[in-house]
Amino acid sequence: MVFAETRDGIIKALRRGHVYITDSPDGPHLEIAIGEAPMGGIAASSTGVELFIAAKGAAGDELRLVAQTGVLTRLTIPTDEWQHTIPLPSQSIFADKKPMRQQFEGRLSVAQMASHVGHEFEVPEGTGTLRLRFEHDPRHPGVGDIPHQLSISVYGPNGPRGTRHNNADQSPVISTGFASPGYLAGPIEPGTWRVEIDVHRLLPPGDVSYTIDVMTDEGEAIAEKTITPQSGQKKRGPGWYKGDLHGHTIHSDADLEVSDYLELALSRGFDFVALTDHNTVSGIRELEARAGNAITIIGGTELTTFHGHALVLSTRDLVDWRIRDKETMSARAAEVARDGKLFIIAHPKAEGHPFCTGCRWAYSDMLPGPARHVEIWNREWRPCAGNEQAIGVFYRWLNEGYRMVATAGTDTHRPSPESARLAANYVYAEDNTEAALLAAISSGRSFVSSGPFVSFSATTHDGLSAQMGEVADQGTLCLEMSWRAETPASDLTGLTARLICRGEIIETWDCAETSEAQSSLGAKNGDWFTLELRDHRGALYALTNPIFVGVPERE
């Protein structure tokens, strides 16, 4: 679209840059100006004036305003006839002073697989914005379907500033009021900074060249994003709550905007949802702002290391995911626990390198080490998903005397097909808050299910009761269990309830013929019981956390 006074003035308007590009001849129509300077013009100053924006026929579209320092603002255009003004910051967004530029070059070999290749640079006093750009070539080894997987992480004098794991965009902008997805906004401290190439996957023949461009300037990138909180009032008080503990957005390697992630959680009927982007927490603040009081948000991250993945819940701070020489994952897990956060081993039997680099749990000091939570149902239930093997690991650790808790995670990266059978965590908590939910999950007061609702409890010979995650005295136990379909999609036809003791089936019931059952038996110290619901092929539909018997064999 060209702005010209007459048809004869089109060439003159093009030369002046009074033009914008659109994919439709019918609009939308845009106009911007800084002070007296129109689109394509030159403003006398970028300070102390307002930026004028007018849009027609663009209701619902997102407007992104970009300057030299990065994205200034993102706005959702509310109406077809819309005007808006934005006061420009007192410090120039156009980098009035010459920026500092530095470039690093190098080559990566297969021997550097699963390592961090770092470069340090000095940031001068008064810097408002830091911009980096990472490029590598070739991106693919030349054979097969699997590309190399390289990302960058940025560290300031006061700690990590983020990463955008496994995302094609490796050109972050970091400023006081704005940061690219994956990174944290905040003051740009003067001093020594470090950028590291995280070599997650480098396939033969290797020999990958790279460049990292670093630029600083005094201007600050700003962002103004219109966020409307969700309406609605979430359920509160003691009761059962349904939700997800594992999912991703564009802040790491997913396709979902934060708003899309929230909408998906609400459409699934969740009372709570965690955001666990890979090695970052940068999307949590926006998710909480958008959620309002409609759903509980659990802060988190997925430590995506070279030899295993783990969820850290109840955090809004970056957690160092690197396990370097002379460091151990067990020490990192213990540190997480000391900080009051929940550590969950994620998809321990997922397909590993090279298809999903680092996804399979391979820490010999963490089998399970100090971990007491393990994700046994990841994504949809499929024979090749590793979930059945994860249940085997869970049962083995229980038999070894560890009092473990099982969890599920949709591991959402994009909308799933309707046929995908995902599991949720059903948690009995004192309230629908992050603290209460995680306390209940930590104690095992939960079950995982793709639809059926189950109950499972035990009563001792002297009348004392124990729920999921609790301990009953040894001796005669009466185990009581029930199951029901919550929705038509969770129909119980064809399902069998299986009572499990120490990993072995001891009794079964047809779920379509009865909705509850009891079993009286003798239990000895070290026994544990769970309830499974499976179909005729053995596919899992629900699994409770254990009821334990006697004193723990291990702390």
Tags for this model:
555 residues; 13-stranded mixed sheet; 4-stranded antiparallel sheet
Write a short abstract of this structure.
This protein is mostly beta strands. The chain has 6 helices and 33 strands.
Number of helices: 6
Number of strands: 33
Instruction: State the secondary-structure class.
Output: mainly beta
Distance between the termini: 70 Å
Query: What is the multimeric organization of the chains shown?
Result: single chain
Give the biggest beta sheet: 13 strands, mixed
**Unreliably modeled segments:** 42-47, 90-96
What fraction of the residues are assigned to beta strands by DSSP?
35-45%
Radius of gyration: 27 Å
**Shape, principal axes of CA atoms:** globular
Mean pLDDT: 89
**Percentage of residues in helical conformation:** 10-25%
GO molecular function, one term: 5'-3' RNA exonuclease activity
Protein name: Phosphoesterase
Pfam family, one: PHP
Domain Polymerase/histidinol phosphatase N-terminal: 243-307
Describe this structure in words.
About 2% of the residues have low confidence. By secondary structure, the protein is mainly beta. Helix 2 crosses helix 3. Strand 4 and strand 5 form a beta hairpin. The longest helix is centred in the C-terminal third of the chain and has 13 residues. The protein is built from six helices and 33 strands. 10% of the residues lie in helices and 38% in strands. Strands 15, 16, 17, 18, 19, 22, 23, 26, 28, 29, 31, 32 and 33 form a 13-stranded mixed β-sheet that branches. It has a four-stranded antiparallel β-sheet with strand order 2-1-3-6, with no helix packed on it. It has a four-stranded antiparallel β-sheet with strand order 7-14-9-12, with no helix packed on it.
